[in-house]
Amino acid sequence: MKKIRTLVVDDEPLARARIVKLLENFDYISLIGECKNGSEALKAITNYKPDLIFLDIQMPHLNGFEVLENKDIQPLPFIIFVTAYGQYALKAFDVHAVDYLLKPYDDERFTRALEHARQQILRQQNALLHQKMVQMIELHRYDTDEALQHFEIKEKGRSQLIHIEDVHFIEAEGNYLKVYTDKKSFLIRQTMQSIEDQLDSRLFLRIHRSLLLNTHFIREIAYEGNNQYAFLMKGGQRILSSRSYKEAIHEYMDGEKLKRNT
Q1: From residue 33, how far is each of 17, 26, 42, 99 by CA, in Å?
Q2: Which strands, in side-by-side order, build the sheet including 218-225?
Q3: Could you tell me the pTM of the whole model?
């Protein structure tokens, strides 16, 4: 489980300090900030997107309920209300608070509230992970079924199948496409756009109107300036991108960073 990004909101300095001190005992908590009123809380929630908030109700400028009613806060984080006023309990649960700590509370009651929140957050994270995995499986199934699997090359009157995984890159050459493999190249009569539509978009990257690269054979990417990149391929070729494809290249590079960090 990743750490729970937590915000503490209370207009009383001692009350904030106690919550912060108690949170130090839990290694799954990452404290991202403290706020002393509703206006500060609204700004922090919007900017930092906490998973969990310990939220006072009676505060200057905006009270806790008014903070949560702001339309800029979507989706709502998990909330543990912390207040000296018991009359707000029913309303707190109307806004789907995880728990309600009535001051003064002891350490044991605080721990129960935090554990309850942790379980709720964990269930949400697992549900989101499951949904993402299902989407990835469906996407893979679709791409596998629909994507082109091989080229049929005719050479000296004989047909030969070139598997897509063996193609290093594809380059437009007049009315033809030149398909490069490890040791040879072949010409096929097809447009770049039509072949791109047939290929697995997770495997091939368009970096120029005349060039498609198999990402498995990219060894290195270097920024050349002016929104252009040089791609060093595993076969030794150095291929320069077009400025108009910078967004697709950035998206690919961001995806590679995400893979390395997960």
Answers
A1: 12, 16, 12, 20
A2: 218-225, 228-233, 238-240
A3: 0.50
Single-letter amino acid code for the residue at 203:
L
CB 239 within 8 A of CB 207: yes
Tokens of 24: 């130090």
Query: Could you tell me the two tokens for 71?
Result: 């339309």
User: φ, ψ for residue 233 (rounded to 5)?
Assistant: -90, 160
Question: Position 217: which residue type?
Answer: F
- Going by the DSSP 8-state scheme, the letter that residue 164 receives in this structure is G
Tokens read off for 18: 């106690």
- 134 CB-near residues (< 8 Å, 6+ apart): none
pLDDT digits (tens, 9 = 90+) for 147-169: 677 777 776 667 778 888 899 99
Alpha helices (H) in the chain, listed in sequence order: 13-23, 38-48, 64-69, 89-94, 107-146, 192-198, 246-261
Which domains, ranges and CATH numbers included, belong to the chain?
4-137 (3.40.50.2300), 148-261 (2.40.50.1020)
pLDDT band at 142, cuts 50/70/90? very low
Peptide bond into 104 cis (omega under 30): yes
What is the Cα–Cα distance from 211 to 191, expressed in whole angstroms? 11
